[in-house]
Amino acid sequence: MYWGEGTPSSEACHTSIGLAQPHMAFCLPDGQTSNGHQTWTLVANPNPGAGTVELTHLPQRAGKTVNFKDEIPPGSRRTYNRAGVEGKYPGIEGRTSIVVSSLDGARPIMVERVMYNYDRALGTDSVGGFTD
Fold this sequence. Notes:
Blueprint: E1 2-3, E2 12-13, E3 25-31, E4 38-45, E5 51-59, E6 66-72, E7 76-81, H1 82-88, E8 96-102, E9 110-117, E10 122-126, E11 129-131
Antiparallel strand pairs: 1-2, 3-8, 3-11, 4-7, 4-9, 5-6, 5-8, 9-10
């Protein structure tokens, strides 16, 4: 993904490996909203039917684990802004890792985590680790 004004001095980008197929669960490293960071969790449902996913935020220092569930329509993607999640689910302030799981064994998902910093001058992207 590229963004910026289109000149070499103001253009920024990030990339990640692609996924050959969807999986049942993903473990995403480090997400935060402090110190100017933005963290987004992107979850795609490539299946012909709606699927339910669970996002689990694992705090850096043995804080309260926060889980929430959402239904994703078929053939679509949801984008979860970490700052918005903090507002709805207190207790995940600071840095967390995130686990995203499909709760329907017949509907694997595709997931990535994107982080930006310094007013989006820097960006990173990761599919993390996955399992079936």
